[in-house]
Amino acid sequence: MSHAFADVSRYFGRAARVLKLGSDDQKLLETPARELRVECNVRMDDGSVATFIGYRVQHDNSRGPYKGGLRFHPSVDIDEVRALASLMTWKTAVVGVPFGGAKGGIAVDPAKLGMRELERLTRRFTQGIQDLIGDDKDIPAPDVNTNAQVMAWLMDEYARSHGFHPGVVTGKPVELFGSLGRDEATGRGVVIATEEYLRSVGRRLAGTTFVVQGFGNVGSHTARIVHELGGKVVGIGDHTGAFHDPAGLDVPGALAHAARARSLAGWGGPSIPPKELLLQPCDVLVPAALGGVIDADVAKELRAGLVVEGANAPTTPEGDEVLGARGIAVLPDIYANAGGVTVSYFEWVQNIQHFYWEAERVRAELDKTMRQAFAGLVATKKAHGVDWRTAAFVQAIGRVHRASELRGY
Ligand code: NAD
After folding, report:
1. pTM of the model
2. Domain ranges of the chain
3. How far does the centroid of ligand 1 lie from the alpha carbon of residue 312, in Å?
């Protein structure tokens, strides 16, 4: 069992003390509204029946419909989903998109399933949660090991019982009511957040060195955009291996390989032992894979000037304390990776209005949202004399608290 929810609670508690929130309010804001566990029985290609367990946790909807991704991973359990759902509540509030927070997950290793098995599993899970979701109730999106195809199946299965509602899920294929720019949105948001931080300390992205862990949706787009903007990507890695070159890696080559091979396995770049990736010297370290990778031991040894959390909860509270003591700034997940939910919001707006935007508009609105949120964090950080993460939680909890109060308990 993970202790991810307890970890988020520690960050929450730190900010709640800054806000001087009473214990009743703290309890109310922290407690998830609804938790659903779904048994998914799936006919496998060999004729056998396999059973998978899925979850959907709806944390808070005082600022709008529940919103949050769907993850397929063997380590998924209720505690992890609960933690990720609460992070979504704070994330949507930090960037000011009119949603609450939710998360879903199925405990499964999708690499062991064929395409048709994955489709049947997604449809079965959708049947299990269909009464709780909807474009004005709860809107899933992609997360680890789920993609636009999985979202298309979810939309289609929902439509069988509820009719045409493309806004029931975001991160759909562009050919099927998705938004231009959603695919790269989280990575682009990570880069905008980094640019804003660098600007605040009088530096520029061009020439800045990056190490990026994870080469899936978030990591690969982050590396690509950093490279396009003249940043130097010196380290990358995924679950199959890690690569490092202080002179800068061939990012387009790695992207082309990963597009073909669906991972970095077999790429000819200069490889290093995977556990050394996070410890390579760089200006900016972007963990963009799984949670908990920067614990106290890693935090003591890493040699980055700034950590930008592309992944959700990549830093443990113990790791966070060490980084703070070492003076290494951390742009927290609930701000740094909020570009994804921001463009999910734009996709939902387009679906509701049946009017589709050009890529330039999506980018400009994302840019504006991320930069405005950063300005808000700077002000909150200064007003309370706290670190970036606490500033982000203070901002978010304040907004959700105010919305709950205005609605009445
Ligand atoms: P993904 O499935 O597309 O990619 C995950 C990547 O992590 C893959 O490259 C995988 O190889 C790598 N990885 C897995 N285990 C690893 C290990 N032990 N060591 C090194 N690398 C490993 O997932 P994603 O959508 O890119 O999500 C990555 C992180 O970003 C997650 O924490 C997710 O919750 C978070 N996130 C995603 C989005 C989004 O829009 N997709 C938005 C916000 C936050």
Report:
1. 0.97
2. 32-164, 185-336
3. 9
